[in-house]
Amino acid sequence: MSAGGLLRSPALRRAAGGELSGSLWRQAGRRFRRNRAAMISIGVLLVIALTSVLVPAFWPHAVEDASWENILLPPSFENWHWFGTDANGRDQFVRVFYGGRISLTIGLMTTLVALGIGVGYGAVAGFTGGRTDGFMMRFVDILYSLPLLFFIIILVTVFGRNIFLIFVAIGAVEWLTLSRIVRGQTLSVKAKEYVESAVAIGLSKPAILRRYIIPNVVGPVVVYVTLLIPTNILIESYLSFIGLGVQEPLTSWGLLISQAVGQLDTAPWLILFPATFLAITMFCFNFIGDGLRDALDPSHR
Amino acid sequence: MAEPSQGWRLPEEGGRRTASPEPPCYARAMLAFTLRRLAVAIPTLLAIATASFFLMRAAPGGPFDTEADLDPVVLENLYRAYGLDQPLLEQYWIYLANVLQGDFGPSLVYEDFNVTELIAIGLPVSARLGFTAMFVALLLGATCGIVAALRHNRLFDHATMTMAMTGIAIPSFVTAPILALFFGLYLKLLPVAGWNGGAAANMVLPVIALALPQLAIIARLMRGGMLEVLRANFVRTARAKGLPERQVVINHVLQSAAVPLVGYLGPALAGIMTGSLVIELIFDLPGVGRYFIQGALNRDYPLVMGIVIVYGTLIILLNLLSDLAYAALDPRVRRTYR
User: Is the CB of B292 less than 8 angstroms away from the CB of A279?
Assistant: First the structure.
């Protein structure tokens, strides 16, 4: 390992323990922490995530508890129906948080799937280069110009509306930009002198990939991923809205909105809460993404 | 960074400017670019048709499952009538050949209609809705973006950008019903739903709901482009030579600032087409989107495939046009498609 001593990139120095003060990353961290919108967003998201986990466990009403006496009650503090009740007399408060659990899970899982495919594909294309790269990227170009939402719809239609399938269907479609980012970054890092010298001292390809390429690709990928999560949450709610996403008894913000639309004239408050939570989540992820981008690439401001 | 275009020449003797700033091979470069893009477009279309065909056929469950307990003989006859008893590859070739002749086959759910007829019924509605929304989004979005950039960091700028953020964060399936509730049910100004032959009053709410997210993105793009160009050297030059600000903006800034917008036209249209599915559902409009969702829910293979192919073709064509416009404006783009 001593051969790498002089050559290590800042990211690696930080990973190695930080005595050398991986200053670039630390500076980025400091810039990010100074971004108030992003920090508040992280706090708000944490609160939403925590409450989504805790509320359904501790709330006096259960998610599926229907009661025919309490149909479409307006919000009130009596009887713990803070957000009112839906058309089946189920407590909207607990349903909104339960839906949040699923929406957030879907956002994270689909992004993980996209991350896996996109990073793998892009890294291979960028690192291999040449004709393989050209071919692989042309394939991405072709997929890019397709109406992808239509394909997600076909995928969920064809393979049933199981929640794992939604992860895969959305993830399998949303990796394209990621692969482009990773490939572009890989290509530009590959041409750097420190990689050249690593090749010169005889480091193996996987070692170069692991020690030089990946740490340098992390930044833009992290930024894109924080922006991909809300996109995917939105796609899921879109699917649920048209009846092709999450199915009862599970619920998600999209499904809650869709059900609330049916009651809009009699119970307009029902749409308010899931829509607000969805919008707040979108905002937060977007602010965090912007904050990360500004922090990691100060020239971008 | 932009390389200096080799086409710029100093004014010739006598101060006469050369008519075209582009090198003489401009037309050839554009033609080559067009051909290269077309060479990608055709396999793409084939890929769309193939992918949707095999995906739909991989589906468990058939199109006639809903009619409980059909006599096996009847079922067999149905399958034979629709050609579903042939080997899969055979069906695929027949389908491709038919599609090339504009025949997407019979709809399995809407009896008495074939898919081409259904699309012919729905497409004018969807197209009218989509293009109006696109027009509104472009016009208002670009205007908001321009004004916001000119009032950079002032109240109007912050207000528009906050609204744009909101427009992006709130999905159209939330804004649409709320608009319908507010303007339709409470104020009784506009119809809550329905198409009514495309009457203007019926178009207003769907168009707004459909245009809003794209409007927000376009406003942000336009503002970003403007801010970048306003800082450019040639703008400083224009101001230095004493042009009034109005003229600087109109003659020098707008053109270059609109370039990223042109590149976004294709994705914007795709966004409007997909957004239209939900809007048509909410406002109960007889467009393609409604048939698509009904078809998807009922496993009406030919209908779904037909719509995907038609929409795919449209998106590819419009993307091609937008790319061509982009390449015509920005020489860097022309070099990317080798």
Answer: no
What's chain A look like in SS3?
CHHHCCCCCHHHHHHCCCCCCCHHHHHHHHHHHHCHHHHHHHHHHHHHHHHHHHHHHHCCCCCCCCCHHHCCCCCCCHHHCCCCECCCCCEHHHHHHHHHHHHHHHHHHHHHHHHHHHHHHHHHHHHHCHHHHHHHHHHHHHHHCCCHHHHHHHHHHHCCCCHHHHHHHHHCCCCHHHHHHHHHHHHHHHCCHHHHHHHHCCCCHHHHHHHHHHHHHHHHHHHHHHHHHHHHHHHHHHHHHCCCCCCCCCCCHHHHHHHHHHCCCCCCHHHHHHHHHHHHHHHHHHHHHHHHHHHHCHHHC
B166 vs A279: CB contact, 8 Å cut-off? yes
Least Cα separation, residue A159 to chain B (angstroms):
6
Say whether A238 and B278 touch across the interface (CB within 8 A). Answer: yes
ipTM computed for the complex: 0.73
0.90 surpassed by pTM: no
Tell me the chain B residues in contact with residue A138 when contact means C-beta distances shorter than 8 Å.
40
| Nearest chain B alpha carbon to A243 | B297
Residue from the list A158, A237, A257 with its beta carbon closest to the beta carbon of B55: A158
Considering only CB atoms, A155 lies closest to which of B55, B168, B277, namely: B55
C-alpha distance across the termini of chain A, in Å: 37
**Chain A contact for B293 (CB, 8 A cutoff):** yes
Nearest alpha-carbon partner for A177 in A216, A233, A215, A223: A223
pLDDT tens digits in sequence order for chain A, 301 residues long: 444 444 455 555 555 444 334 567 777 788 888 888 888 999 999 999 898 888 777 777 777 776 777 766 677 767 766 777 777 767 778 888 888 888 999 899 999 999 999 988 988 888 788 888 888 888 887 777 677 778 788 777 777 667 888 888 888 888 888 898 888 888 888 888 888 888 899 888 888 877 887 777 888 888 889 889 988 888 888 888 888 878 777 888 888 888 888 877 787 788 888 888 888 898 899 889 888 888 877 665 4
Phi, psi of A91 (to 5 degrees): -70, 120
Asked if B114 and B106 count as a contact pair (C-beta separation under 8 A), the reply is yes
Q: Can you tell me the distance from the alpha carbon of A58 to that of A285, in angstroms, rounded to the nearest whole number?
A: 27
Amino acid at B144: C
Q: Which two tokens stand for residue A238?
A: 């879109």
Measuring CA to CA, which residue among B56, B80, B75, B55 is closest to residue B64?
B75
User: Which residue in B44, B173, B322, B323 has the most chain A C-beta atoms within 10 A of its own C-beta, making it the best mutation to test that interface?
Assistant: B173
